[in-house]
């Protein structure tokens, strides 16, 4: 499998996991000129839109997957999230009152999944 296929597979696994946790998937691979966000979800328990980066590693040999979300990647995600929020204020909203937003990371190591809420 190439990186793109592997990434898509684990983004799908992360999306299903989040749905089982009660999240609503608003967008997958949201793209704009600033870049891409893997998943945009709505967390009804916190009334937040969550901009989520999915990271997979087969083992911890090279460290935790979330460590790959460096300062440059965080800046890019923040910029893309601004575009998403502007698009939503022009044409629609999440399925409920939204009080705010946050940035999450879903780490997948082997078959274990961990959600880091408010990761940055």
Key traits:
single chain, alpha+beta, Trna Endonuclease, Chain: A, domain 1, five-stranded mixed beta sheet, 120 residues, 5 strands
Structure in words:
The protein has 120 residues and is of the alpha+beta class. The chain has a single domain (3-116), classed as 3-Layer(aba) Sandwich (Trna Endonuclease, Chain: A, domain 1). It has two helices and five strands; from the N terminus they run αβββαββ. The protein has helices at 3-20, 71-91, and strands at 24-32, 35-43, 48-57, 100-109, 112-116. The protein has a five-stranded mixed β-sheet, with helices on both faces. The longest helix has 21 residues, at 71-91. The chain is globular and about 45 Å long. The N and C termini lie far apart (30 Å). The model has no long low-confidence stretch (mean pLDDT 91).
